[in-house]
Amino acid sequence: MKKTISILALSLCVAAPTWAAKQMYKWVDAQGKVHYGDTIPPEYAKQGNKEMTKSGRVIKETAAAATPEQIRAREAEEAKEKEEKQKAEEQKRKDKALLGSYTTVGEIDLGEKRNLEAVDLQIKSNELRIRSVQGRLDGLKQQEERITARKRPVPPDLAADIKQTEAEISHLRDNVAELGEEKDKLRARYAADRQRYQELKGLATNSPTPAKK
């Protein structure tokens, strides 16, 4: 019996290389022509191949190495997916904050009104300041005109005061313009919040928007 087992084991050892030799490879060259062989030429090793038996059964399949263009395309797609995921998470956070901040559309309207009124007060304050400074500038200009009418040089301190006062008025006017832009941004933000809140609550989104002030 032991002799029979030994002979069988020896037969298996001898047959092993024969089984290995029955495996073959299939690959495609640069011209698209299909090749078969016991080994793959090194120049085609990265183009993808199939390891198969002589009968054609695929044992293992190796995908082709990605080209630089494919790598760039994949990275761009991954970056896009990441960005979209971040946007979705940010929108989810904003939605949660929006629903936590208001219980009715009326509260959104009230918040908009209060914020616009606060900006209007700042604009009014700047405009009053402009009128005050403009009055001072007019007085300085009159002094300058009287001096030049007598063909005398304008004192350096008077010229400096005029320049400084003009700069102050310019700065105040810039503030008023910026506050006007802030009002536009507030209206746009509250309009977006109002519409999103109505969408989240399943409310009609055609309700009238508060009139501009």
Protein described:
The chain contains four helices and four strands; from the N terminus they run αββββααα. By secondary structure, it is of the alpha+beta class. The chain folds into two domains: 24-64, no CATH class; 84-201. The protein has a four-stranded antiparallel sheet. Strand 3 (49-53) and strand 4 form a beta hairpin. The chain is elongated and about 115 Å long. The N and C termini lie far apart (107 Å). Mean pLDDT is 84; it is low at 1-21 and 207-213.
Features:
disordered N terminus; 68% helix; 4 helices; 213 residues; disordered C terminus; single chain; 2 domains; alpha+beta; 4-stranded antiparallel β-sheet
Task: Decide which structural class fits the backbone.
Answer: alpha+beta
Number of strands: 4
Strand content: 5-15%
Order of helices and strands: HEEEEHHH
Assign an overall shape.
elongated
Major sheet: order of its strands?
A: 2-1-3-4
**Count of domains:** 2
- Average pLDDT level: 84
Largest sheet: 4 strands, antiparallel
Distance between the termini: 107 Å
Range of helix content? 55-70%
- Round the Cα radius of gyration to an integer and report it: 41 Å
Helix count? 4
**Runs with pLDDT <50, length 5+?**
1-21, 207-213
Q: What is the secondary structure topology, with strand pairs?
A:
Blueprint lengths: L1 H20 L1 E6 L5 E4 L11 E5 L4 E5 L5 H34 L3 H45 L6 H46 L12
Helix pairs in contact: 3-4
Task: Produce a short descriptive summary.
The chain is an alpha+beta fold. The chain is 68% helix and 9% strand.
